[in-house]
Design goal:
The protein is mainly β and about 150 residues long. The chain contains one helix and twelve strands; from the N terminus they run βββββαβββββββ. The relative contact order is 0.22. Belongs to the heparin-binding growth factors family.
Length: about 150
């Protein structure tokens, strides 16, 4: 599949072991949502906001620039997950920026983690309140950094 000349891979949702789906808002905010109802499966959403939350949790993973690396893009927003130099995760339009490539590591029980290629040790994570964790405060193997890929 092609979108503006860029090849994309798997369409999925990333379910954090903390109980949230990773979402990328149109404004570039990375967070979690615990609303996993699917407007396309017959479940009725209660509002336009609920539909936006669901759709903003639909992601595409594309290959990064090295074997074992990926870029994470919000299907609805068109933005890529990115770490800034201060460790704060956000979403950016340009997939070539530093901090947009992640090493995908596989854990048992089908969970994956996503560590920044440009900032080793910084993991993508969601805290227990559903907010994106600063990469400088994450650890491999913790609930906040383990994601179950759910294909759409």
């Amino acid at each position: 599949m092609e979108d503006n000349g860029t090849p994309f891979g798997n369409k999925l949702q990333l379910y954090c072991e903390r109980g949230f789906l990773l979402r990328i808002s149109d404004s570039g905010v990375i967070s979690g949502t615990d609303d996993n109802s699917d407007p396309y499966s017959g479940t009725k959403a209660n509002s336009v906001i609920q539909i936006q939350l669901i759709i903003s949790a639909h992601l595409e993973l594309s290959s990064g620039d090295e074997i074992g690396t990926v870029k994470i893009r919000g299907i609805h927003s068109g933005l890529y997950v990115c770490f800034g130099e201060n460790g704060k995760p956000s979403a950016k339009e340009n997939p070539g920026l530093p901090g947009t490539t992640f090493r995908e590591d596989f854990y048992g029980h089908s969970y994956n983690s996503y560590e920044s290629k440009d900032y080793p040790g910084w993991m993508l994570g969601i805290n227990k309140a559903g907010q994106a964790k600063n990469g400088t405060k994450t650890e491999a193997g913790k609930k906040s950094t383990k994601f179950l890929p759910i294909r759409l």
